[in-house]
Structure formats: structure tokens, C-alpha cells
Design brief:
588 residues; alpha+beta; nine-stranded mixed β-sheet; 31 strands; 29% helix; globular; binds oxalic acid; binds manganese (II) ion
Length: 588
């Protein structure tokens, strides 16, 4: 499919190492996809679902020991340990290559090596990047064909260039003791062995689009972020775009596909989804920051997705979707998961492949991290700019976390560098749903803790540098918290579609149309400026969730100081000054 010497030389190396019986190039054609689906069904790798109710949809079950990303087995293999930083696991690259090649050697014997040429971002976009993944898994091929743009057109776009990312995936024996997800940012190389779970093996996603790309971005003045991108259209038809970072399990996909409250819809407001997980952003010709979503689909968590929480996500899964580790309803060959509806199937198979009666069983039927891989084009609110090669201009960057107290519903940073500080101190509190203590604050700067491919203090410095590059055209930076609790532990803010009310204030701030109160942490709305029309909430409650308690924030500042110690001398001076400034304002 190509004469590109660098690609062919690497594939020769791969053939020699992995010893496949056969090599198949993924060309992106519908016929090839159909053939692979049929083959995977014949071996049991996929189960064909009801083609009338769920056309072109399939179910896959992973090994029970292989159901999530493995952060403790994920490594950044930079030449110098210091370059991986205190928040990443590190391995020496030479030792890592040797170990990984020893594990993978001969592992494709009797199998096919699939070669997937893929583009992260619309093919040919100046913001896009190209990768090649070799894999022994049809499941990976089919998922990559949903999540990225694959095939002949990618190879043609690459031409003779050596500017592409190598990705080697081998399932080997799915041995958790020999499972490794390794990144070599200095060599543009990713190697993943002994897993078949999406986040570990769809190498375009977290491995390339965040870990490797964050390193590329640092060296080339762009940004690879764990952010959704959405467009907000007003009744005049003007659309403003925001990018938002939240730690995993804070409702990023829901916010990306939000449906505005009825009152707004009647007036003509709309939300358009550009992306739900990753944003690549670069200064555009007019000096503003432009973002693309490098992905082409959604790899969403199934449990909790329903007609109320996220009808757009649910609609996206009705065609051409691969479900992983959900329940199979044997009566009609459809799928089910906890939180889909209140009617679990009685005659069913659970995520482990065992008979399961949802009406009687006290055990969960779907794995809590079960997933859907759905084409973005299925989404009813997909942005008309989704395939734009130039991307969309970002007016605001939003950070957020899950905090029971302390952090108000929304506040705006004082300026860009203060916003970098706000992102760097992002945190979530553990909930009763997670194992371990409740209410423990976990810091997750910019939601990038598991995804930054280099030293996180250098990453902060890169953010500060981007502010200098963008100058007064830089997006405004905000922080939101949908999760404030009252004394009895009830949520004070309704969340979901009503978060639109907060987005409206954010856009108004960007346009100089809303006032604010200056507090020690930044600018907080006047309660009157958040529209409560149609909402059963009094303004006093709203004032409560907007309140900034300086005593609590002084304690928070201690936590930040402790967290910052991790980065030692590498922490940018600017962030030390930001913390000092906050403490000073709080004690006034
Ligand atoms: C994801 C995650 O799967 O952030 O997107 O964990
Ligand atoms: Mn994510």
C-alpha cells in the first residue's frame, strides 16, 4: 500500500520479530471491515447483535483480568529518568525495548499481523498526525476504524515523510504479570503487550493522542489536552467554542453532549459536540487558539448512560457500535447495562460470559468500566465543524473536579497564568463508589496526571509559554464544580442540562457581557447573573454554592503547597508566585 521507506523498514522489523503467518493492510474499505467482522464472529471474538434493532453492532468480552487501563504498568521511557518526572513510571528505553521485544518475540505465530495506517485528526489537516499500529487483534482493528480515520487515504497523505508514530500491540498471553504499556516519546514509539482492553491497545487514544502528543506539543508550541470540545449556539446563530478538562468519571461525555434546558431550547440555543475526550490546540492564523478533536468516535463508559443522562450518547450507540463487557439480552440479542433502564433482562449473559438473571441477581451484569465504541457521525448533536481541517476557535478553557465543599460552582481565573495555577491544582474527592477512604482529595492537574508524557512541571511551564504565545488572544480560563453537597450529602446543583446556565455565564464573561465579584481565588458570578428560570432553586441556595470560604481555602492552600513539593526545583517560579499571591489575598 506504500513505498514509504521508513514505514516498510519498520514493518520488516516487525515481521521478523513477531513472525506472523500473514500480513494484512487495513485499507479503510467497507468490504474489508465486513470480512473482518465475519471472521471475528466465527472465532467468538465478536458476537453479532440484533441487526434490525442495532444494525452493524457487535459485542466483545475481554478477559476478566483485563478490563481497564493499568496505570501502574504504564511507563514513559525517556532517556533521562528526570524527563519522565515524579508523576510517571519510568523505564530505561534500552532495557524496556529489550524486555518488550523478548515478550513479543514470535507472538504472532499462526496469526495475522494487521497493519493499521491511521490519522489522528481529519486526514490532511495541518493539526493532524499519522500513526501506524500493528496488532494481532481484529477487535483492535475494528475499534481503531471507529475511533480514528484509517486506510489508504492516510498512507497517501503521509507520502515519503518519516513523520509518523510507531505502535506495536500484541495480545501475547493476556498475562497481567507481563502487561506493559510503554511510551518512547523521543523515538515516537508505543509498545503495548499482554492486554486486549481498549485504553491499553487502541494506541491512537491515550498513548498517542495524549502521552506522545503532549510531548510533541511541548516541542512544537501546541497542546494535547484531556479535554472535551463543545460549541454553544445562541438564537442569533453565533457559535462559541469551549474546551473543558475533568478527571475520569466526572461526566465529560455528558457535558460534551449536553441538551440545554427547555427554556433555552425554545429560544433557539443549541450545543454542538466537537469532542468528548481529547483536544489538540494550536495558535491559528488570526492569533486565536484553534482546537481539533483528533478522534473519530466515542469510547464511552456504558453504565449510567441512559435516555435522561445522555440521550445523544445513547443515540450514538444505535448503529455501527462495538460494545465491550456489557450484558447480552438473549431474548432479542440486544445489550443492557446498569443504569440503562429499570428493566434488566432475566434471560441474559453477563460481562464474564456467564448466564445472568437481571431480575434476580444481586451481582452487576455489566462491568462498571464496560464501554461503547461509537462513530462520532452517529451523534445527533455532532458539530458541523467536526471534520474541519482548521479546527474551531476556543473562547474559554474550563477546568473542573468533584468537590463536596470549598470550590464554588464556577469562577474565572484572574488571567492566563492564574488560570494555569487553577488547572495545576485541579482535584477530585473520592466518593463512596470508589474503594478506599471517602473525601480524600486527589490532585489531577489539568486531568492529565495519567496522560502527560513528560515531566509535569515542564508541562506547567509549557502552559505558561502558550499564554505568552497567545497574548491577549488567549482563551479565558474558568473552573467549575457541579458536585457541591449540602450538610445531608445531597447535591446542591442539579447538573446535567442545567450546567448550560453556567456555560452561558462563562460565554457572557468572555464577551464582556456579565459582571462578577472579585474574590481571593478569582471572579465569581453575582447570583443574579446565573439564570434560574425554570429551575426549582432559590437564589439563597445559589449564593451558597457560589460562596468562597477563605478559611477553607487557606486549608486548601496548605494541600496545594504539599502537592507542589513533589515537583521540587522544577516547579515554575510563576506557580510559586501564584500560590503566594493566593495565600496573601486569603489572609487579608
Ligand atoms: C477515558 C479515561 O477512558 O479518561 O477516557 O479514563
Ligand atoms: Mn478520558
Amino acid at each position: 500500500m506504500t513505498n514509504n521507506k521508513s514505514v516498510l523498514a519498520w514493518l520488516d522489523e516487525m515481521k521478523e520479530l513477531l513472525c506472523p503467518d500473514e500480513v494484512i493492510w487495513i485499507d479503510g474499505s467497507k468490504e474489508q471491515i465486513e470480512k473482518l467482522r465475519a471472521e471475528a464472529c466465527s472465532t467468538g471474538e465478536l458476537i453479532k447483535l440484533n441487526q434490525d434493532l442495532l444494525p452493524e453492532c457487535y459485542l466483545h468480552r475481554t478477559a476478566v483480568n483485563d478490563v481497564a487501563r493499568v496505570e501502574d504498568r504504564t511507563f514513559i521511557c525517556s532517556r533521562k529518568e528526570e524527563d519522565a518526572g515524579p508523576t510517571n513510571n519510568w523505564k530505561d528505553p534500552q532495557e524496556a525495548y529489550k524486555m518488550l521485544f523478548d515478550i513479543a518475540r514470535g507472538s504472532y505465530k499462526g496469526k495475522t499481523m494487521y497493519v493499521i495506517p491511521y490519522s489522528m485528526g481529519p486526514v490532511g489537516s495541518p493539526l493532524a498526525e499519522i500513526g501506524f499500529e500493528v496488532t494481532d487483534s481484529i477487535y483492535v482493528v475494528l475499534n481503531m476504524s471507529i475511533m480514528t480515520r484509517v486506510g489508504q487515504k492516510v498512507v497517501e497523505t503521509l507520502g515519503d515523510s518519516e513523520d509518523w508514530i510507531k505502535g506495536l500491540h500484541s495480545r501475547c498471553d493476556i498475562d497481567p504479570e507481563k502487561r506493559y504499556i510503554c511510551h518512547f516519546p523521543e523515538d515516537n514509539y508505543i509498545i503495548s503487550v499482554n492486554s486486549g482492553y481498549g485504553g491499553n491497545v487502541l494506541l491512537g487514544k491515550k498513548c498517542f493522542a495524549l502521552r506522545i502528543a503532549s510531548y510533541l506539543g511541548k516541542n512544537n508550541q501546541w497542546m494535547a489536552e484531556h479535554m472535551l470540545i463543545l460549541g454553544i449556539e445562541n438564537p442569533q446563530g453565533e457559535i462559541k467554542y469551549v474546551a473543558a478538562a475533568f478527571p475520569s468519571a466526572c461526566g465529560k461525555t455528558n457535558l460534551a453532549m449536553l441538551i440545554p434546558p427547555e427554556g433555552y431550547r425554545n429560544k433557539g440555543y443549541k450545543v454542538w459536540t466537537v469532542g468528548d475526550d481529547i483536544a489538540w490546540m494550536r495558535k491559528g492564523p488570526d492569533g486565536r487558539l484553534y482546537a481539533i478533536n483528533p478522534e473519530n468516535g466515542f469510547f464511552g463508559v456504558a453504565p449510567g448512560t441512559n435516555e435522561k443522562s445522555n440521550p445523544n450518547a445513547l443515540a450514538s450507540t444505535k448503529k455501527g457500535t462495538i460494545f465491550t463487557n456489557v450484558v447480552l439480552n438473549k431474548d432479542n440479542d440486544t445489550v443492557w447495562w446498569e443504569g440503562l433502564d429499570k428493566n434488566p433482562p432475566a434471560n441474559a449473559i453477563n460481562w464474564k460470559g456467564e448466564p445472568w438473571n437481571g431480575q434476580e441477581s444481586s451481582e452487576k451484569g455489566a462491568h462498571p468500566n464496560s464501554r461503547f465504541t461509537a462513530p462520532a457521525e452517529n451523534c445527533p448533536c455532532i458539530s458541523p465543524e467536526f471534520n474541519s481541517t482548521t479546527g474551531v476557535p476556543i473562547s474559554a478553557i474550563i477546568f473542573g473536579g468533584r468537590r463536596a465543599q470549598t470550590t464554588p460552582l464556577v469562577y474565572q481565573s484572574r488571567d492566563w497564568n492564574n488560570g494555569v495555577f487553577v488547572g495545576s491544582i485541579m482535584a477530585s474527592e473520592t466518593t463512596a463508589a470508589a474503594t478506599g477512604a471517602v473525601g480524600v482529595v486527589r490532585r489531577d492537574p489539568m486531568a492529565m496526571l495519567p496522560f502527560c508524557g513528560y515531566h509535569m512541571a515542564d508541562y506547567f511551564a509549557h502552559w505558561i509559554e502558550m499564554g505568552e504565545i497567545l497574548g491577549d488572544k488567549a482563551p479565558k480560563i474558568f473552573n467549575v464544580n457541579w458536585f457541591r453537597l449540602d450538610e445531608e450529602g445531597h447535591f446542591l446543583w442539579p447538573g446535567f442540562g442545567d450546567n448550560f446556565r453556567v456555560l452561558e455565564w462563562i460565554i457572557n464573561r468572555c464577551e464582556g457581557k456579565a459582571d462578577a465579584q472579585e474574590t481571593a481565588i478569582g471572579y465569581v458570578p453575582n447570583a443574579e447573573d446565573i439564570n434560574l428560570e425554570g429551575l426549582d432553586m432559590d437564589i439563597e441556595t445559589l449564593k451558597d454554592i457560589l460562596y468562597v470560604d477563605n478559611e477553607k481555602w487557606l486549608k486548601e492552600a496548605e494541600g496545594i503547597e504539599e502537592f507542589y513539593k513533589k515537583f521540587g526545583d522544577k516547579l515554575p517560579e510563576e506557580l510559586k508566585n501564584q500560590l503566594a499571591g493566593l495565600k496573601e489575598r486569603l489572609s487579608k
